[in-house]
TrEMBL record, chain A:
It is a multi-pass membrane protein. It comes from Streptomyces antioxidans. This is Spermidine/putrescine ABC transporter permease. Keywords: Cell membrane, Membrane, Transmembrane, Transmembrane helix, Transport. The keyword Transmembrane helix applies. Belongs to the binding-protein-dependent transport system permease family. CysTW subfamily.
TrEMBL record, chain B:
It comes from Streptomyces antioxidans. Residues 1-28 form the signal peptide. The keyword GTP-binding does not apply. This is Spermidine/putrescine ABC transporter substrate-binding protein. PANTHER family: BIFUNCTIONAL POLYHYDROXYBUTYRATE SYNTHASE _ ABC TRANSPORTER PERIPLASMIC BINDING PROTEIN-RELATED, SPERMIDINE/PUTRESCINE-BINDING PERIPLASMIC PROTEIN. InterPro entries: SBP. Keywords: Signal. SUPFAM superfamilies: Periplasmic binding protein-like II (SSF53850). The lineage of its organism: Bacteria, Bacillati, Actinomycetota, Actinomycetes, Kitasatosporales. It comes from the Bacteria. Pfam families: SBP_bac_8 (PF13416).
From TrEMBL, chain C:
Pfam families: ABC_tran, TOBE_2. Residues 349-359 have a biased composition (Basic and acidic residues). PROSITE patterns: ABC_TRANSPORTER_1 (PS00211), ABC_TRANSPORTER_2 (PS50893). Keywords: ATP-binding, Nucleotide-binding, Transport. GO terms for molecular function: ATP binding; ATP hydrolysis activity; transmembrane transporter activity. Signal peptide: none annotated. This is Spermidine/putrescine ABC transporter ATP-binding protein.
Length: 281, 393, 359
C-alpha cells in the first residue's frame, strides 16, 4: 500500500492534472455531447439553418429509412474487411521485421513502414486514384493475366483504406512480436512444435492483443472515412459521405447519422475490451 | 467506487449544461437578417476572401494566359483568397462560416443565402458597371427581394452533355444517352453529385414522359419526384462515379473512367487542353443551367474590397474573359464587344431570352410549387437531399 | 518407471549413450564459443557442465537442444545423428533459466503442451499433465496462470512441462539460478530425486560448483569452449586435472615454482585442499623451516586472519618468503593454543594430499 499523499502533494497533483482533464472534458466529451445534442434539433429545409426545437425525428428517420441501414451495413462491412486485410498483411510483415530480418535491418524497415505516414493523406489517395484508373498501372499489371483492375468502387475503397491504415496495424503487432522473447519460440520448438504450430499456439496468442489494438485504429478510421471513398469510391456511398453531405444542409441529421459510427465504435471497443486488448494500448 | 461514478456523472452533466448555455447564446433571434447595404465605399482592406465556381477566379495557375485575379490585385491592392466550391450546398455552408466576403452563388443558393441572412443586400450604385448588365438579369426572383438587389449578376449558361468522341458513337444529342440508354456505357457514366441533379432527370422526363405533367424541373410533387428518383436509380447502375470536384471529372474523362455525363463548358475546355478526345453538347431537350450572382456576405470583413471585386468581375473585359473561359453567357452587354471570339455572345445566346427559356436555371425547390400549381404541395430541398442519398444507395 | 525400462530396451549397442558430441565446434562470427568438444553422456546419468560464465557451457547445451547449429562436428542423441535435426524433432526437452513458460496458457496447458503438439487426446493429455504436476508437487495449481506463481513454483512447472512426455534427455540451463539459497538447496535434492526416479538423462549447465558436486553423477568442467576434465565429483574435486579445475571446483592452495619447492618440497605445481591441512602447536624444528617425515609434511607459519563461518573456520596463514596457505577446520574440537591472530602455528598434511596438477 502506498502511503497516503500529504495535503500539499495532493494539491500539486490536482493543479497538474486539472488543465488536461478540463481540456479532455470540454474539448472532447463536450464536443461529443454537443454533437449528440444537436441530433435532437431540426433544420429549416430552405435556409439550412438549425432550428432549436427538441424532437426525435432525425433518429426516427435514421431507423426507418432503409437506405441508411444499407449504408451503415456497407460501411461496417468495409471497416471489417479493411481490418481483416490489414491484420493478415501486418502479421507476416511485422514478423519479418521483428524476427526474420537482422537487427540492423529492423530500423530501416520500420522507417520504411512509417514513411507513408508522413505523406499527405490526399496525396496517397489521389495516387491510388491514378493507379486504379482505367489506364492506371493496376489495370496494366493485371492485363497480361486477362484480368481487369477493380476500377473505382467498393473494392478500390477497401484496397486504399487497407493501404492507408496498414502502419497502424503493423506498429503494435511489430512491438508485440519484438517483445516476444526468443525463449518462447525455442521452448515451443523444444517441446516438439513445428513452425506452424508455434505460430498458432505461441506467436498468435502473444500478438492477439496487439492485433486488436491495431484493429481499433483500422476499424474506427475506416468507419469514419469519407475522403478516400470520394476519390476512389466511384458511386459508393459510406456513412462518412452522407454525414459530410448532410453537414452542409442538415446539421442535426448529420449529427444523428454520426451517432451510428460512434455507437458502432463503442460496441467494438467493448468487444475488444472483453478480449483484453486494451490492456496493451 | 459507486460514489466516484456518481460524481463523475454529475460533473459530466455540469459540463453539458455549461455547453448548452454556450450553444444557446449563439442563436439569439435576429429579425433584421442580412444587414444593410453600405452607402459609400471606404478604402480597400487589402484583402478579399472569395468563394467561386471553378474558373470564376483564375489567377493564371491553370493557364498562364487566363488571369484576371492578378490585374485586380494590382489595381485595387486587394489580395484575393479564392476557395473553389463544387456544389451550391458547399457554397451555402462555406458562407455560413462567415469567413468569406463574397460568393458567386447560383440560383439554388442565392435564395437560401438571402433567407438565412447570410447575404447582404447590395447597393448597386457602388458598382458602376451594374448599369451595363442585361436588364433581363436584374431584379430577378433569384437575386432580389422586395425590389432590392442582393448581388450583381455574373453570367449564365447550361449544364452540358460531355462524351468521349472515341468511345461514344454515334454522337449523342439527347440526355437519353445518360438515362434510358445509359447501360450502353455501364460503369462509365458520370453524373453531378448534388441533389439538384434530380432536376436533370426531371427535365428529361418532361419530354420522355409527358404524362407525368412536369412543367418545371424544380417543381416536383411527390409522384413526379418518385419518377425522377426511379430514373436516377436506374441510371445509378450504369454510373461509374459521381462528381462534384471538377478536377476529378477532368481526370475521369481524361483516363477514360468516365465516357459520358453531365459537365460544364469549362471542364470540357480543360479536359480538351489535356488532349483528351471529348466534346460537350447542349442536348435537344434543353438543359438545366445556372444564372450566377456575386453576393456579399452579411458578415463580410472586407466589404470594400468585395465591392471592388464585384465591379471588376462584371467589367466588360473581365466579364468577357470569364464568360469565354468558363463557357457561358456574360452578364455585361458591353462584354460582347470584348470577347476574343467575336461570336461568343451569339454562340452562348447572351441576349437570347428565348434560348434561356429552354435552360432551367438552378433554383431551390420549395413546398410551394414554383410552376404555380396551387392544388398540390411540391417536394422541398430537404426531400430532394434524402432522395439523392437514396439514389446513391 | 515403465517408460524408463522401455527406453533401456530400445537403447542402442553404443553402451547406452544418451548424448554424444564429436569434435563439435561452434563459432559466433570470429568468436569460437565451443572448440572441438568431445563429450559422452551415458543413459540415465546426471551429467553436469560446470564452468564460469562465458565458458561456452550454455552454447553446448543449446547445440544439444538444436537451437544452435555446430560449425563443425557431429551430435548424436541415443546413437542417432541429429546434427541437422531441428529442435522439435529431437527427443530432448529444455528447462530454461527463465523458465520460458507460455504466459497466455494455464499451468495445465503449459505442462500439456508437448502432448497437445503431438495430438494426444484431451483426456489422456490432462491425466498426464496432472501426473507430471503431482511429480513436482504442484497438483492444485493446474488452472493458474504462470504470472500468478512464485519463482520456485514456476521452476517446477517448467520441470513438469519438460518431463511430461518423458524425453530421453532433459537439458537444464542454470535451472536454479533465479532461486534464493534455501529454495535452491531444496530444489537440488528434488532434482536429484526426480532424476533418480524417472531415470531420464539429465544434462545440467551451471556455474555453481556446489550444485554440480551435490547433484551430478559426472561433471565436465568447461573453460574457454573446451572441456578441461570429465569425471565423477569426487575425482574432479580430489584429482583436478588442471590448475583451472583445481581453482574452480572448490577452493584450493595452488603452489607452483619456487613456492612448490619451499612448501611442498618438490618442483612442479601442486594443489592442497584447505581442509586437508591440520593445525598443530608450533613444532620442532623451529619456525620457518619445513620438514618431511613418515609421509607427512610439516611447516610453521603465522596466522594473519581467522574467519569463523559457522560449521568451520577459515585460517589464512603466512609462511616465510611470502607464501600463503588457507586452512579450513571443522569446528569439532578445541583449537591449538596458538590458534589466535598473529600466533605461531604448525601446519601438516599428508604428502599425497599435495596433488600435482598440470599447469
Amino acid at each position: 500500500m502506498p502511503a497516503a499523499p500529504t495535503p500539499g502533494s495532493r494539491l500539486r497533483l490536482t493543479a497538474l492534472l486539472a488543465p488536461p482533464l478540463l481540456w479532455l472534458t470540454l474539448a472532447y466529451l463536450g464536443s461529443l455531447a454537443i454533437l449528440l445534442l444537436s441530433a435532437f434539433w431540426a433544420t429549416d429545409s430552405f435556409t439550412s439553418d438549425v432550428v432549436h426545437t427538441w424532437n426525435t425525428d432525425n433518429f426516427h428517420e435514421l431507423l426507418t429509412t432503409p437506405v441508411y441501414r444499407t449504408i451503415a451495413l456497407r460501411t461496417l462491412s468495409i471497416a471489417v474487411a479493411v481490418t481483416v486485410i490489414d491484420a493478415l498483411l501486418a502479421l507476416p510483415m511485422a514478423f519479418c521485421m521483428a524476427r526474420v530480418a537482422g537487427r540492423r535491418w529492423r530500423r530501416p524497415l520500420l522507417v520504411a513502414v512509417l514513411t507513408p505516414l508522413w505523406a499527405g493523406y490526399l496525396v496517397k489517395a489521389y495516387a491510388w486514384r491514378v493507379m486504379l484508373g482505367e489506364d492506371g498501372v493496376v489495370g496494366a499489371a493485371l492485363a497480361p493475366f486477362g484480368l481487369h483492375g477493380p476500377g473505382y468502387g467498393t473494392a478500390a475503397v477497401i484496397i486504399v483504406l487497407a493501404y492507408l491504415w496498414l502502419p497502424y496495424m503493423i506498429l503494435p503487432v511489430y512491438a508485440a512480436l519484438e517483445r516476444l522473447p526468443e525463449r518462447m519460440l525455442e521452448a515451443s520448438a523444444d517441446l516438439g512444435a513445428g513452425a506452424w504450430r508455434t505460430l498458432r499456439s505461441v506467436v498468435l496468442p502473444a500478438v492477439r492483443p496487439a492485433v486488436f489494438a491495431g484493429s481499433v485504429f483500422t476499424f474506427s478510421l475506416s468507419l469514419g472515412d469519407y475522403l478516400t471513398v470520394q476519390i476512389v469510391g466511384g458511386k459508393t456511398q459510406l456513412l462518412g459521405n452522407v454525414i459530410a453531405s448532410q453537414v452542409t444542409l442538415d446539421l442535426p441529421m448529420a449529427a444523428a447519422l454520426s451517432a451510428v459510427p460512434v455507437v458502432l465504435i463503442v460496441c467494438y471497443l467493448a468487444a475488444v475490451r472483453r478480449a483484453g486488448a486494451l490492456d496493451s494500448l | 467506487m459507486r460514489k466516484r461514478k456518481t460524481s463523475a456523472w454529475r460533473s459530466a452533466a455540469a459540463v453539458c449544461a455549461l455547453l448548452l448555455t454556450a450553444a444557446g447564446c449563439g442563436s439569439g433571434g435576429d429579425d433584421d437578417k442580412g444587414g444593410h447595404a453600405p452607402d459609400r465605399l471606404g478604402k480597400g482592406e487589402g484583402k478579399v476572401n472569395i468563394i467561386a465556381w471553378a474558373g470564376y477566379a483564375e489567377d493564371g495557375s491553370n493557364d498562364p494566359t487566363v488571369d484576371w485575379v492578378h490585374p485586380f490585385e494590382k489595381k485595387t491592392g486587394c489580395q484575393v483568397n479564392t476557395k473553389t466550391a463544387g456544389t451550391s450546398d458547399e457554397m451555402v455552408s462555406l458562407m455560413k462560416t462567415g469567413q468569406y466576403d463574397t460568393v458567386s452563388a447560383s440560383g439554388d443558393a442565392t435564395l437560401r443565402l438571402i433567407a438565412s441572412g447570410d447575404a447582404a443586400p447590395v447597393n448597386t450604385k457602388l458598382v458602376p458597371h451594374y448599369k451595363d448588365i442585361f436588364p433581363a438579369l436584374k431584379q430577378q426572383p433569384f437575386n432580389s427581394r422586395d425590389g432590392r438587389m442582393y448581388g450583381i449578376p455574373h453570367g449564365r449558361g447550361a449544364n452540358l452533355l460531355m462524351y468521349r468522341t472515341d468511345k461514344v458513337k454515334p454522337a449523342p444529342d439527347s440526355w437519353r444517352a445518360v438515362f434510358d440508354d445509359a447501360a450502353a456505357h455501364s460503369g462509365h457514366v458520370t453524373a453531378y453529385d448534388s441533389p439538384i441533379y434530380i432536376a436533370d432527370a426531371a427535365l428529361y422526363l418532361m419530354r420522355a414522359k409527358p404524362s407525368l405533367g412536369i412543367k418545371n424541373p424544380y417543381a416536383l410533387d411527390q409522384k413526379q419526384l418518385d419518377a425522377a428518383v426511379d430514373l436516377l436509380k436506374k441510371q445509378h447502375k450504369a454510373v461509374g462515379e459521381y462528381w462534384s470536384d471538377y478536377q476529378k471529372e477532368i481526370t475521369a474523362f481524361n483516363g477514360g473512367d468516365s465516357v459520358i455525363g453531365t459537365t460544364w463548358q469549362v471542364i470540357a475546355n480543360l479536359t480538351k487542353a489535356e488532349k483528351a478526345p471529348v466534346k460537350a453538347v447542349l442536348p435537344k431537350e434543353g438543359a438545366t443551367g445556372w444564372s450566377d450572382t456575386w453576393m456579399v456576405s452579411a458578415k463580410a470583413e472586407h466589404p470594400n474590397c468585395a465591392y471592388k471585386w464585384l465591379d471588376w468581375i462584371v467589367s466588360p473585359k473581365v466579364n468577357a474573359q470569364v464568360a469565354e473561359y468558363f463557357g457561358e453567357a456574360p452578364s455585361n452587354r458591353k462584354a460582347c464587344a470584348e470577347t476574343s471570339d467575336p461570336n461568343h455572345c451569339a454562340v452562348f445566346h447572351a441576349d437570347d431570352e428565348k434560348y434561356f427559356q429552354r435552360v432551367h436555371f438552378w433554383t431551390t425547390p420549395i413546398k410551394e410549387c414554383l410552376d404555380g400549381r396551387k392544388d398540390t404541395t411540391c417536394t422541398d430541398y430537404a426531400q430532394w437531399t434524402r432522395a439523392w442519398t437514396e439514389v446513391k444507395g | 518407471m515403465a517408460e524408463t525400462e522401455t527406453r533401456a530396451r530400445t537403447g542402442t549397442t553404443t553402451t547406452r549413450t544418451a548424448v554424444r558430441l564429436e569434435a563439435v565446434t561452434k563459432d559466433f562470427g570470429t568468436v569460437r564459443a565451443v572448440d572441438a568438444v568431445d563429450l559422452t553422456v551415458r543413459e540415465s546419468e546426471f551429467f553436469t557442465l560446470l564452468g564460469p560464465s562465458g565458458s561456452g557451457k550454455t552454447t553446448l547445451l543449446r547445440l544439444v537442444a538444436g537451437f544452435e547449429q555446430p560449425t563443425a562436428g557431429r551430435i548424436e542423441l541415443a546413437g542417432d545423428d541429429v546434427t541437422a535435426t531441428p529442435p522439435h524433432r529431437r527427443d530432448a526437452h529444455t528447462v530454461f533459466q527463465d523458465y520460458a513458460l507460455f504466459p497466455h496458457m494455464s499451468v495445465e496447458q503449459n505442462v500439456a503442451y508437448a502432448l497437445t503438439v503431438r495430438g494426444v487426446r484431451k483426456a489422456e493429455r490432462l491425466a498426464r499433465a496432472h501426473e507430471a504436476l503431482t511429480t513436482v508437487r504442484l497438483d492444485g495449481f493446474a488452472t493458474r496462470r504462470p504470472a500468478e506463481l512464485s519463482g520456485g513454483q514456476r521452476q517446477r512447472v517448467a520441470l513438469a512441462r519438460a518431463l511430461v512426455d518423458r524425453p530421453a534427455v532433459l537439458l537444464l540451463d542454470e535451472p536454479l539460478g533465479a532461486l534464493d539459497l534455501a529454495l535452491r538447496q531444496e530444489m537440488q535434492t528434488e532434482l536429484k530425486e526426480l532424476q533418480r526416479t524417472t531415470g531420464i538423462t539429465f544434462l545440467l549447465v551451471t556455474h555453481d560448483q556446489d550444485e554440480a558436486l551435490t547433484m551430478s553423477d559426472r561433471i565436465a568442467v568447461v573453460r574457454d569452449g573446451r572441456i578441461e576434465q570429465t569425471g565423477p565429483p569426487v575425482e574432479v574435486y580430489e584429482r583436478p586435472a588442471t590448475a583451472f579445475v583445481a581453482g574452480f571446483v572448490g577452493t584450493t592452495n595452488l603452489l607452483r615454482g619456487e613456492s612448490a619447492v619451499r612448501v611442498v618440497g618438490r618442483p612442479g605445481t601442486y594443489s592442497i585442499r584447505p581442509e586437508r591441512i591440520l593445525l598443530t602447536d608450533p613444532a620442532e624444528p623451529p619456525a620457518g623451516a619445513a620438514a618431511s617425515s613418515a609421509g607427512r609434511r610439516t611447516v610453521t607459519g603465522r596466522i594473519t586472519d581467522i574467519v569463523h563461518a559457522g560449521a568451520h573456520t577459515r585460517f589464512t596463514i603466512a609462511l616465510p618468503h611470502g607464501d600463503r596457505l588457507t586452512v579450513l577446520r571443522q569446528n569439532l574440537t578445541g583449537l591449538p593454543q596458538s590458534a589466535r591472530p598473529d600466533g605461531e602455528i604448525g601446519l601438516s598434511w599428508d604428502d599425497k594430499d599435495a596433488f600435482p596438477v598440470p599447469s
